[in-house]
Specification:
The protein is mainly α. About 45% of the residues lie in helices and about 0% in strands. α2 packs antiparallel against α3, α2 packs parallel to α4 and α3 runs parallel beside α5. This is Ankyrin repeat domain-containing protein 39-like protein.
């Protein structure tokens, strides 16, 4: 997390995407890194930023079964109705993860 913090504190846009359109919040959400997600959101990261394939951080967290991060993103206005390029919303993604329901 210190590397991300360093760049954000130096003025890097927290929504700066990589070549695939993923931002630091996408990666942190996919890993379930609640603390980093919270930090990025506090620094203005968008909870609804989309990759080239249309995935939001909420899609990533939902698909990976990270419910605390899902809740955090929803409290920061993540839109659960945004569909990715396959027409899947975060709700579709979470339904694919059986461990969430155990």
């Amino acid at each position: 997390m210190s590397g991300v913090r360093h760049f954000v504190e130096k003025g890097t846009d927290p929504d700066l995407p990589d070549r695939s359109g993923y931002t630091a919040l996408h990666y942190a959400s996919r890993r379930g890194d609640y603390e980093l997600c919270e930090y990025l959101l506090s620094k203005g990261a968008s909870s609804n930023v989309q990759t080239r394939g249309g995935a939001t951080p909420l899609h990533r967290a939902a698909y990976c079964g990270h419910l605390p991060v899902v809740t955090l993103l929803l409290t920061h206005s993540a839109a659960p109705t945004i569909a990715d390029q396959d027409g899947m919303t975060p709700l579709h993604k979470v339904s694919l993860v059986s461990s969430v329901f155990e």
